[in-house]
Design goal:
The protein is an alpha+beta fold. Helix content is 23%, strand content 20%.
């Protein structure tokens, strides 16, 4: 009951009619807050005849406010786009560059989540709680795995200003243990300013069988021939714009489109892969030389730019065997085809915006979140999960599967030699704060705005400067308070002056960098950098110094010549680190180090029992039982109405890693899928129909092995060895009960996906985990993406 209704009901009961009439005349001027409407500015009388209505004006941004589109490519190096010197066919992005500006001095956080947090908030990533990927929390304010509410996102700011806001694609800005159907949903896209969302919450996903979320609900990927995630994401982006334009064309929109391309897995139809095999047969050394020459021709780099020395461990192309060349070319061709395919689909988005008349008044910002990836290792891989689990796959095994590259049977990433070429002319890679990790492509186009076309800009621009620039040109101020939370000031600065002035000064003088202990600082054209060896003493780090005014590619370390400048910049780095919440430094490696999931208060790893039910929503792996290096059991109550009743009891993972407990051909089976092989334990006899309690018990033994025992109604019906128990936790796909919805864990039922348990009933599935006396070895899910 509203306050006004409550008051009037009491008055009617307690006062005479005359008194009521007298008081009501006074109440006619009570502001509408008494009825719960805090923006009502009319008059409430006894009836409509002695009342004055008021209709609140809808939120409207200033006239002429541009639409905004952020397009984030993933793991695309400085030299991977055609307009930045690449051989890869990216005509639509090249046209975007031709009708806008390319920046050659643009910097990111060298890893995905941190870059995205900085991009969307205009603040430094440590300050908002995202020092590295969202998968890793360290118990300190700089590493919460989510963006603090004290840093409103661009979506939140624009939404409050009257924009429609949509997100499609990769999010990776919420702790992965908070991405189940139980939430909490506070840091999912629709709670951080986006009206609609369609995409995936983790750092990467299978392009043919993605782990999809729509708004706040997990959904299954469309079941259609030739499905690919990039096409699906662009379809939804177009659909969001179409729906909004059809109903409220007067409103501007903000579209955040974050493709999986070109992060592993490099999955794309075979024709796109074949197209690039002959192009890259020249090898990575020649590719790197050719790209630098083309960059100079395009004016992307100064004419005096030199290639940095080859990164440590990279073999000269001509020293490789013919088999190595053949495999490595195919792996690079898959990456190139994946990027080509992404360009083709982005072209559909640009064409649609033009067709409906919204391209001219749209600012398109396209960037990569970090440099080319080092996560394929020296020989590349057909299963990148091996990198995170530190499992080496023999070269011969990868070569044997060369024709699977690009298909749903591969989770590929290229060798380091190609990553080095992708980052031409810089050294190192993604995860490093040298140019190869942090100096990335940025294209800005605004056909109807004041932006020069076809030019290159060399001003220093950081990812935290992008959103302040958008707010500047849209003439929108950040709120001092948002949803009752006092807001951090913007750390970035607008570089809008560079849109029309090639000689505009840098918007800022200083920017620090830090990632996994690697540190750098840029200040007025100087850059000091130190590469940190995992778990070493920070005081032992050796600082390099580069004069970027004359050394664009960071080729000549002049630290020995200018020791005073090194000391000055070191001190400045510590000052900035203190100012922006970088401390404490954490130099543990990204993978292979026990981190934050075990032992954290409330962590699922501390639970001993998990009970699941069939048809429940797909569960991300980190929100399920942590069974790494632990004894555990899975128990299921079933009723096989027919002797032919079969199907998945529980499956966790996909065809690249994980495990499945299922019934097939009347036999109980437990199967693990590791990076380098499978283990299958099957019951010795068929199970009778009717009610049964089915159970598998896993016990770690030695050398990463485990023993599996199958039971039916308490009786042992099979046992065997799990040759590589890491296969239990080398998983990305997540957990399903009573079916296997993504890329199936086992090939034995792949043609019958999702292989749901039927006919009959599966009542529940119970995990019991021994949380005592374990080795503490991290699972792949607990490692960073």
């Amino acid at each position: 009951m509203s306050r006004l209704k409550y008051v009037t009901s009491r008055l009617r009961r307690d006062l005479s009619q005359a008194t009521w009439a007298f008081l009501l005349a006074g109440l006619a001027f009570v502001p509408a807050i008494a009825a719960g409407e805090d923006d009502f500015k009319g008059v409430i009388g006894r009836t409509d005849k002695d009342s004055t209505p008021h209709y609140p004006a809808p939120r409207r941004p200033k006239a002429g406010s541009p639409n905004v589109v952020y397009i984030i490519l993933d793991d695309v190096g400085f030299a991977d786009l055609g307009s930045y010197g690449s051989e890869i066919h990216t005509p639509n992005l090249d046209r975007l560059a031709a009708r806008g500006l390319r920046y050659n001095n643009f910097h990111t956080r060298a890893i995905c989540s941190a870059t995205r947090a900085a991009l969307l908030t205009g603040r430094n990533s440590h300050s908002v709680g995202m020092r590295t990927v969202a998968n890793i929390q360290n118990g300190f304010p700089n590493g919460r795995g989510r963006v603090t509410p004290a840093a409103a996102t661009l979506a939140e700011i624009l939404s409050s200003a009257g924009y429609s806001t949509f997100a499609a694609g990769k999010w990776h800005l919420v702790p992965l243990n908070e991405t189940s159907a139980a939430g909490p949903f506070d840091h999912w896209p629709t709670r951080r300013g986006f009206d609609r969302y369609y995409g995936f919450l983790d750092g990467m996903t299978d392009q043919y069988h993605p782990d999809l979320v729509q708004d706040n609900t997990r959904i299954e990927a469309p079941d259609r021939s030739g499905y690919h995630l990039t096409e699906d994401l662009v379809d939804h982006a177009i659909g969001y714009v179409r729906d909004q334009t059809s109903v409220t064309p007067e409103k501007p929109f903000f579209l955040y489109l974050a493709l999986g391309a070109a992060h592993a897995p490099h999955q794309v139809p075979r024709s796109y892969v074949d197209k690039y095999v002959p192009i890259f047969e020249k090898g990575w050394d020649k590719t790197r030389e050719d790209r630098l020459a083309r960059q100079k021709e395009l004016g992307i780099v100064p004419s005096t730019t030199e290639l940095t020395a080859p990164n440590e461990g990279i073999k000269p192309w001509e020293s490789l065997t013919s088999d190595e060349k053949r495999l490595f070319v195919r792996l690079q061709a898959a990456f190139a085809g994946f990027l080509d395919h992404a360009d083709e689909n982005l072209g559909r988005l640009f064409a649609y915006l033009e067709r409906i008349g919204r391209l001219n008044d749209t600012i398109v910002v396209l960037l990569s979140d970090n440099g080319a990836s080092q996560e394929g290792g020296f020989e590349g891989t057909l299963n990148e999960l091996g990198y995170f689990a530190r499992v080496e796959v023999p070269f011969a095994e990868n070569l044997k599967r060369i024709d699977e590259i690009g298909t749903e049977r591969s989770f590929t990433n290229y060798p380091l030699g190609w990553a080095q070429a992708g980052n031409t002319p810089f050294k190192r890679y993604k995860q490093n704060v040298h140019g190869g990790g942090s100096n990335d492509p940025l294209i800005i186009s605004w056909p109807g705005g004041a932006v020069e076309t076809g030019k290159v800009r060399s001003q220093f621009v950081d990812v935290i400067d992008v959103t302040p620039t958008i707010l500047d040109v849209a003439k929108i101020e950040i709120p001092k308070d948002y949803n009752g939370v006092e807001q951090l000031p913007l750390h970035g600065a607008s570089f809008a002056r560079t849109f029309i002035d090639p000689n505009a000064p840098n918007a800022r003088h200083t920017q620090y960098f830090e990632l996994h202990g690697h540190r750098a600082i840029w200040h007025d054209g100087w850059k000091a950098i130190t590469y940190h060896k995992p778990d070493s003493d920070f005081d032992d780090d050796v600082w390099e110094l580069y004069d970027l005014k004359s050394d664009f590619s960071e080729s000549h370390d002049v630290a020995a010549q200018y020791p005073d400048k090194v000391r000055e910049l070191q001190k400045l780095w510590w000052d900035e680190a203190q100012k922006y919440g970088v401390l404490p430094l954490d130099g543990r490696p990204l993978v292979g180090s026990p981190r934050s999931f075990r032992g954290r208060p409330g962590a699922l790893s501390q639970r001993k029992t998990f009970t699941y039910f069939p048809a429940q929503e797909h569960l991300p792996g980190v929100a399920g039982p942590d069974i790494a290096s632990r004894s555990f059991s899975i128990t299921a109550d079933v009723n096989r109405s027919l002797a032919g009743s079969e199907g998945v009891i529980v499956a966790n993972g996909d065809s690249f890693g994980g495990y499945a407990f299922y019934l097939k051909d009347g036999k109980l089976t437990f199967e693990t899928n590791g990076v380098v092989g499978r283990s299958v334990v099957v019951s010795t006899a068929e199970l009778p129909k009717g009610e049964a309690t089915l159970r598998v018990e896993l016990t770690p033994t030695t050398n990463n092995e485990s023993k599996a025992v199958l039971k039916a109604n308490g009786q042992v019906v099979g046992e065997g060895k799990i040759a590589d128990a890491r296969g239990l936790t080398i998983t990305w796909g997540g957990l399903d009960v009573g079916r296997d919805t993504l890329n199936p864990v086992s090939p034995s039922y792949a043609d019958r996906r999702p292989f749901a348990f039927a006919p009959g009933t599966l009542s529940k599935v119970v995990f019991e985990v021994d949380t005592d006396g374990t080795t503490g070895a991290p699972s792949t899910q607990a490692a960073a993406r």
